[in-house]
Amino acid sequence: MLAPVDGSSRRADAVPIEVSGLNKRFGAIQAVSDLSFTVAPGRITGFLGPNGAGKTTTLRILLGLVHATSGTATIGGRRYQDIERPLRSVGALLESTSFHPARRARDHLRMCAIAAAIKTTRVDEVLELVGLKDAGRRRAGGYSLGMRQRLGLAAALLGDPPVLILDEPANGLDPQGIAWLREFLRYLAGQGHTVLVSSHLLAEMAQTVDDVVIIAGGRVRAAGPLSGLLSQIRSSMRVRTPEVDRLLGVLAAAHWDSRRLAHDLVVVEGVTPDQLGPVLARSQIVVYELVNERTDLESVFLSLTGSETPSATAVPGP
Amino acid sequence: MIRGVRAELFKLRTAPGPWVVLGAALLFTALGIVVVFLVSHAGVNGRHHVSFVALTSQYRLRRLVAAGFAVGGVWMSAVVGVLCVTGEYRHKIMTTSMLVEPRRWRLLTEKAIASLIWGLGIAVASLLLVGAMGIPLLKTQGGSVSALFNQAGPVLPGFFAAFALLALFGAGLGTLIKNQIAAVVTILAITFIIEPVFDGIFPNVGRWLPYAASAAVAGDIAPAAERVYLLSWWLATIVLAAWGLVPIVVGYFTTFRKDVT
Prior knowledge:
The structure holds two protein chains of two kinds. The radius of gyration of chain A is 24 Å and the shape is elongated. The longest helix of chain A has 16 residues, at 175-190. In chain A, the strands form three sheets. A seven-stranded mixed sheet of chain A has the order 5-6-7-3-8-9-14, sandwiched between helices. A four-stranded antiparallel sheet of chain A has the order 11-12-10-13, with helices on one face. Chain A is an alpha/beta fold. Chain A is 32% helix and 25% strand. By secondary structure, chain B is an all-alpha fold. In chain B, helix 3 (52-90) crosses helix 8 (180-201) and helix 10 packs across helix 12. Chain B has helices at 2-13, 16-45, 52-90, 94-100, 104-140, 145-150, 152-176, 180-201, 203-206, 210-218, 224-227, 233-256. The longest helix of chain B is centred in the first third of the chain and has 39 residues, at 52-90. Chain B is built from twelve helices and no strands. Chain B is globular. Classes of the chains: A alpha/beta, B mainly alpha.
């Protein structure tokens, strides 16, 4: 199912996505504010942010559906509206409900193929690619959310475009479907495709993306390689002990930052288990629980989007 | 542009709405023919002695066609134009359409042309039904089929033009009014309430309205009594085309170009 439709060589038409100084105002609401980032070819970029952060607005501006108040959003240096036969250059998945319920899935793809001068045989190829070969003649109204998502993905892949822009593509997919999507996106990125994916599924994104653009309140909070972002966030240890006061004294002597969270609970910032464990042993402190507070995408996301202060974080390279 | 029109026609062909409208148009046409036949048949046994043959030869094919035309077949053409545009908003397919063709003026033009072609399709289907029902009825009463065909020349151009231009009018209305139900209700209101009111009270204004203009475009189909106050066919063609094009242009700038959120 994962095999490419036509050949497996790395594509030569690498196309970056560039957003520069983008602003969008809906009446009194500033949806997007001075947004700038670049999505590189051959990498999967996660576009993350809480509800109302401006993700969908940004993607719709990129795709020519919403007009920017100012700034530019280009794909390969051109606005989407200026691309001739855009389905062959950019594949987009925006909503899982963009189908006529009474139209057969195959016909939905055929109508796109006719307009974009894509051979009808490609319709069957993409249906097979997304695992809908046997359901292609069913009406889209009878599809489950996951099947509709796959159909939307099939439409995005119809023109075999070098750029994919996917808004919440894992919505409604079962675990197998999510795993398939992850593997498929990785494969496409490996072939040189430019992949921009927005999602709320942070754990899934952490396994999929190479780069992240995190926005909140319409502004970029962080942009760059995921590994670089994670390395910037200090790890911490959580210690549960009946000897909290003695522990705090030991930590202070070692010049480690710590916070008492409860009568028997302390968080130690910026240490690893390898560093803290021996100190606790030497001090003979009774420990009921020692937990490494992992630095994951979710904690990074929450730390960056929880703040009201719009300060962008430059992330060092891997 | 041709590919876009083909895609729009494919969309119409693969959705149930336009077929329902076509079916309704044929139903109205059939009802109209039956009414004409029953009236004439009743006349044979009644006081007036107006046979079906006499009726068709007197008014020629045009009256028979006009029966279906007048009752409702033609405004169904306008409904298809509405569906072509508003159906996309209703089912959120406009996003897909605008991704395929992001130049919106081009997309709208393709929709208008596809509506016009589907309107012509309704006209052809209606005409075939008229032939399928009318010719046997004519034969049962000893009428001349060849005479009927000879009348086609003056009748058909206006007949087709009226269907096509009203479909364009529907597409324009659909561009102005995105809500499908509101747009269809507006068509019904114009046809069955607004125009009859104007016809009755201000006929000089009423003849500039879409339905009266379509009757004038149809020319020979329109009953002689109506033709007295109708516009000339060429002026009516311009007026009816304007009823389609003006809403399309206004709708493009006010609605169609707006953000799709």
